[in-house]
Predict the structure.
Amino acid sequence: MTASGPISAEEAVRHVESGDTVMVGGFGLVGAPLTLIDALVAHSDATDLTIVSNNIGEPGRGLGKLLRQGRIKKGISSFFTSNPEAVAAVNSGEIEATLVPQGTFAEAIRAGGAGIGGFYTPVGAGTLLAEGKEERLIDGVPHVLEGPIRADVALVHAARADTLGNLWYRHTARNFNPLMATAATITIAEAGEIVPVGELDPESIATPHLYVDYLVASS
Amino acid sequence: MSDDSKVAIAARAARELRPGEIVNLGIGIPNLIPGLLGPDTQIFLHTENGLLGVGPRPTDEELDPDLTDAAKRPVTALPGASYFDSAASFAMIRGGHVDVAVLGALQVSEQGDIANWAIPGKDVLGVGGAMDLVIGARRVIVTMTATSSTGEPKLVRECTYPLTARGAVDVVVTEHAVFRFQDRSPILVELLDGATVGDVESETPARFEVRLEG
């Protein structure tokens, strides 16, 4: 779809419903959609959420706020460890956890957005993280079958957007954001700056607007 | 383990790097390497959160919250640097485009297996890019102290900690020795800091050949 000008963060997070799988961009807090997360914390009562994000924020910051509210049912991440409260919540059984090697996590989201039904990777073969997964030898090397990851809603952050929803990322704040923008039924993007159509250099747009459903200004 | 020993391990590992190579550095000892490279070494640092061409730590004026390494510490980007998303970054790693990964380990086995992400029953919730890097990088250099902080040897016959990957290690540098793996078995090639072969044998349960270089 295509965004039609910015809406408020409060309005945007109404699209998140209880039981949803929600992708959240960012590597730690770098490139995380903090305005949208704060709106989810303050203005939504959606609960039992499955969160797909590289980390579950930090204690009391980013997704760490949603964790403290007890609204996360499950996390799919490569590194829960950056939030000791998330580790404690997993260990106490308060939330479920699926740990995925970071490259597999990224590729599974890419596959989810690209209509690919899965892929074989050598990463994880013969380790705890391959348990229960199909393995096969490819050119003599053990590979593991990984499925795609998709979500109901993706929350992403860009440094700059135009009003159609074309997105431009900055430095290492790009990370998982362009992948997640492709892999959800509804993609909500927040941007540090929103400019008129035509002002972004078409060569530098990393996320074309067809992926973006709603646009919000970062606060 | 003193800081001097860590610097010595890092300095010896740095000598394994060759001009023109693309290198990914893990946290801990490997992160001492940038400060030990000369100014014109032509080594390009890759960080899996999406940057090739990592530069030195920023000054206060250069500090940019959108620019960090994989340990989430602020960095700079050198001229010629490029940014990319996480899928592209790991495609570079798995695709064999990153020449070297230098990283720490909890255990390395005599088969070249590596365990560096989890302690059984304690922390199996953070893997990050460790598995991708040891599988994908063309050479894997492990920098680690010979024994853990509780005195347990780290170059062992079989890893008892959860594996990161099998048969992935090429070089191990400790404060006392350099081992190279050939056909998945370790060869002691260099003694460091006045250590003898006997010293290394006494702290190393793994079986190894001795073929000292130079």
